[in-house]
Design a protein that fits this description.
Order of helices and strands: HHEHHHHHEHHHHEEHH
Strand content: under 5%
Distance between the termini: 19 Å
Number of strands: 4
Shape: globular
Largest sheet: 2 strands, parallel
């Protein structure tokens, strides 16, 4: 969450759509597959065909995912510098208002001061209608959220083990993630990560073409944080930094093993990406016919076209469309969500 997934998601959805792959899709009106709760069989729509691709937000569990997905599945995720991700989540989930911050211009110091000094302070910023069927629980978007999403047992939901203060257990879990995942992308090195993805999957430039989405601007985005605030956040989210630092190193270790032309390919892709995005945004807003934009062959990718249809798929809400397709073809086989107690997530 808040790790460039709104830019990556449409790219992966389009890849599957172009190849008629079978998606793991959320139930009913949900936009996530169980998140922030551990995934269970009532969180996704059943399919008569084997699943090929799971994209939407969900909590990683090796056993569950291995039972759900094919044996030859590739596992990929993305991480972001923890303090930057924290600020982005703070804005996205409207904690300024939900937590009644008085400083609207730079609320981060005020919020961290409350976390530091108010016993059991638990303003997290999750809306009550995101998951209508769940136990009564609270969930934090500001504390170790990346680690939680990658399945680390951190006491959520209540009753689950919490290894946050067990450093050997945390490091052991991070190493297990390293063994399980083929690639953990780093948002700060987004294009380098995409080229690694392309090479891992034997894809083309067109397959990793994306359009930046949900890149928000807010008053405190570019305000340099106070040193004391960063130091406190690093202590409070120690395992986020352990996780991020580990996979930042693994990313560059992978890059070091690539061929000498790796960074030349990155530069070539950035040039293509900027040209393609400019074309798509112009197409989207100017609505000029069905032009085709041609890209010549390079030593890293064959020639290809970007069309208005390609742009539309990357810019539209493909999840809703995929659900509509599911309803047409497989809805009669869809099992119903059990009648569980409606939850009211606490702030």
């Amino acid at each position: 969450m808040k790790c460039a997934t709104e830019s990556l998601g449409p790219m992966f959805r389009k890849f599957g759509y172009d190849r008629n792959l079978t998606y793991v899709l959320p139930v009913e009106h949900m936009i996530w597959i169980g998140w922030p709760f551990p995934l269970n069989e009532y969180d996704y729509r059943p399919s008569r065909k084997p699943y090929n691709i799971l994209i939407e937000h969900s909590i990683y569990n090796k056993t569950t995912f291995r039972n759900l997905m094919p044996n030859n599945s590739i596992y990929i995720s993305s991480l972001r510098e923890p303090f930057v991700r924290f600020k982005s989540a703070f804005n996205c989930f409207n904690l300024v208002n939900l937590c009644h911050m008085t400083n609207k211009t730079d609320p981060i110091p005020e919020y961290l001061n409350l976390v530091k000094n108010v016993p059991n302070y638990n303003c997290t910023g999750i809306f009550t209608d995101w998951r209508p069927h769940c136990p009564k629980v609270s969930f934090s978007q500001t504390h170790n959220e990346m680690s939680h999403t990658l399945g680390m047992p951190l006491g959520f939901p209540p009753g689950r083990p919490n290894i946050e203060n067990d450093l050997p257990a945390v490091l052991d879990y991070i190493q297990k993630l390293d063994n399980d995942f083929h690639l953990i992308m780093i948002v700060e090195y987004f294009h380098e990560s995409l080229i690694l993805l392309k090479r891992l999957m034997c894809w083309t430039f067109k397959d990793i073409f994306y359009i930046k989405r949900h890149v928000a601007n807010y008053p405190y985005k570019k305000i340099k944080p106070q040193k004391a605030d960063v130091e406190f956040y690093q202590k409070w989210n120690r395992i986020e930094y352990l996780l991020y630092d580990h996979f930042n190193k693994t990313l560059w270790n992978k890059i070091s093993k690539e061929s000498d032309d790796f960074f030349d390919e990155v530069v070539a892709f950035i040039k293509f990406q900027e040209e393609g995005e400019k074309y798509c945004l112009w197409k989207e807003y100017k609505k000029k016919g069905d032009d085709i934009h041609y890209f010549e062959e390079t030593i890293w990718s064959p020639s290809f076209n970007i069309t208005a249809v390609d742009c539309h798929l990357l810019l539209t809400d493909m999840l809703k469309h995929l659900k509509d397709v599911y309803d047409i073809h497989e809805r009669p086989h869809h099992h119903q969500q059990p009648d569980l107690k409606t939850c009211h997530l606490e702030f």
